[in-house]
Write a structure and sequence with these properties.
The two termini are about 25 Å apart. By secondary structure, the protein is mainly α. Helix 8 packs antiparallel against helix 11. It folds into two domains: about 60 residues, no CATH class; about 180 residues, MetI-like fold (Orthogonal Bundle), CATH 1.10.3720.
Length: about 300
């Protein structure tokens, strides 16, 4: 709860450091000063900052984040419909990351310091170094425009359209975070494989496959689960660039448009929502970690 209070206060004050007057943005550069002053008064922007802050905190405590300055709708009404596309992109992007990271981590850990391990580490470094927007544009050019296999932008209206529209963004997002999961899982697998109980299992004559999946993997996933939980929270709030590149009508696109329009209420509502998601994901992540590793309860 304390984290959400701090995020709420920070969201209010930090957005006001961005240059630009919301009233001037709404009315345009040729509006008279009188019109701008009148709109500022209607929006309450001419009140002292602390008065605006207390009013905003009182409203936020009732889950009322006000109304958009540029759109005739409540902030909650604008955020609600955009949660589903962002959630779908987050889940699919995380799925792609796991599909890439898990096989490569197992392959690298079983051949530590060999050619395969060197190749995997080099590949992970390349994926980590690639700018997300550049890789997304590259996929859109090669697969969307050159091959005309998948749409390069938009979300569509049917389930099939949604699936087709999310493939390229999900791959872009998955490739950007896969190295983090890959490196964590590889390190955990190598560390666990050097433990005494693994040597004891080999001494009992257990096969390497059984040791890998029954002993090594079970004792290596805890740290990886923690990283996956952190990444999941990051993906939902940090997929702004990917949504903008592929024109996905999610929370990231709404945030970019709101910042451009200096729409303070929408920006504040989005920041608080992202903060709440990160807090909830962190709590769930801790519960899963305890369930996987009973030693943490002690």
């Amino acid at each position: 709860m304390l984290v959400l209070v701090v995020v709420t206060i920070a969201a209010f004050f930090l957005i006001r450091l961005v240059p630009g007057d919301p009233a001037r943005v709404v009315l345009g550069p040729f509006a008279s000063n009188e019109s701008v002053a009148q709109l500022r008064h209607q929006l309450g922007l001419d009140e002292p900052t602390l008065s605006q802050a207390f009013r905003f905190l009182a409203q936020a405590a009732r889950l009322d984040f006000g109304r958009s300055i540029t759109q005739e709708a409540s902030v909650v009404g604008l955020i609600g419909p955009r949660i589903a596309p962002s959630m779908a992109l987050t889940v699919s992007g995380l799925g792609v990351a796991l599909l890439i990271a898990i096989p490569l981590a197992f392959a690298a850990s079983r051949r530590r310091d060999g050619a395969v391990d060197d190749l995997v580490r080099t590949l992970s470094s390349i994926m980590l170094a690639m700018p997300t927007f550049w890789f997304g544009i590259l996929l859109a050019l090669l697969i969307g425009l050159k091959l005309s296999v998948l749409p390069t932008s938009g979300y569509g209206y049917t389930v099939l359209d949604h699936v087709r529209g999310l493939i390229l963004p999900a791959v872009t997002l998955g490739v950007s975070v896969a190295p983090l999961i890959l490196r964590t899982l590889r390190s955990s697998l190598i560390q666990t494989s050097n433990q005494d109980f693994i040597e004891a299992a080999r001494a009992r004559g257990l096969s390497e496959r059984r040791i890998l999946f029954r002993h090594t993997t079970r004792n290596s996933v805890a740290a990886t689960i923690t990283v996956v939980g952190v990444i999941a929270g990051y993906l939902l709030s940090g997929a702004v660039v990917v949504e903008a590149v592929f024109s996905i009508p999610g929370l990231g696109t709404l945030l970019v448009n709101s910042v451009s329009a200096r729409d303070f209420p929408v920006i504040q509502g989005l920041v608080i929502f992202f903060g709440a998601v990160v807090v909830v994901v962190s709590i769930l992540n801790d519960l899963v970690y305890v369930a996987l590793d009973p030693r943490v309860r002690l």
